UniProtKB/TrEMBL annotation:
Keywords (A to Z) from UniProt: DNA-binding, Transcription, Transcription regulation
Residues in the DNA-binding region annotation: 40-59
The keyword Iron is assigned to this record: no
InterPro entries: Homeodomain-like_sf (IPR009057), HTH-type_TetR-like_transc_reg (IPR050109), HTH_TetR (IPR001647)
GO molecular function: DNA-binding transcription factor activity; transcription cis-regulatory region binding
Designated name of the protein: HTH tetR-type domain-containing protein
Domain HTH tetR-type: from-to ranges: 17-77
Length: 212
């Protein structure tokens, strides 16, 4: 059995983990609520109630903070997606595709994904940020792919299914970016999503005729 650190060291380690978690959550909040233009390590420290010295101790650069936040969001996503699968499988076959699309949409409507959208919007002139987002996008899609395979099994291996799924993700992301840029109201956004979902159901009907 591995030797346990002394109680005082364990308390110090736990405080460090708590501070790190606090800073990552504050980063999400600043991005989602204030936007990328207002995002800075100073703003994050103020939102978290953490001194600049403590913040720099955990994250020496703004990029390090962003990269850690993106990894944090992937883990959150991996935890949450399986919890939503019952929302899809419970209920009649009819409407299953729409339920699956609505479930994915609800995950994309989260505060965490809103923070990601702000980073995407701000990445145009920042190659380091673009590189971090490419890794995040790959990790996020891998997490989604794991969940989808648990849901649909070998259907995920049928020709064209991956392309249909990526089309869906891109369409949702595009709609959400447009909504944030133009300041669409909640009702207008949901109306746009309702129309988009109708078209997406037609794409997936090929793979789940009974679920249309």
């Amino acid at each position: 059995m591995p030797e346990q650190p002394p109680p005082r060291r364990r308390r110090v380690q736990q405080r460090a983990l708590d501070t790190r978690e606090l800073l990552l959550d504050a980063t999400v909040g600043v991005l989602a609520e204030q936007g990328y233009a207002q995002f800075s390590t100073l703003a994050v420290g103020e939102a978290a109630g953490v001194s600049r010295g403590r913040l720099v101790h955990h994250f020496p650069t703004k990029l390090a903070l962003v990269e850690a936040t993106l990894d944090h969001l992937v883990e959150r996503y991996r935890e949450r997606v399986p919890l939503h699968l019952d929302l899809i499988t419970d209920g009649p076959d009819e409407g299953r595709i729409a339920r699956a699309l609505d479930t994915l949409w609800s995950l994309k409507r989260s505060r965490e994904y809103a923070a990601c959208l702000e980073l995407i919007a701000g990445a145009r002139g920042d190659e380091e940020l673009r590189s971090a987002l490419r890794k995040f996008d790959g990790d996020l899609n891998a997490a989604l792919d794991d969940a989808v395979r648990r849901l649909v099994g070998i259907v995920a291996d049928r020709p064209g299914f991956d392309a249909a799924l990526m089309t869906t993700i891109s369409a949702m992301r595009g709609l959400l970016l447009t909504a944030r840029a133009l300041g669409l109201s909640e009702s207008d956004l949901e109306g746009e999503w309702s129309r988009m979902r109708e078209r997406l159901v037609l794409i997936f009907e090929e793979y789940d005729p009974a679920g249309a």
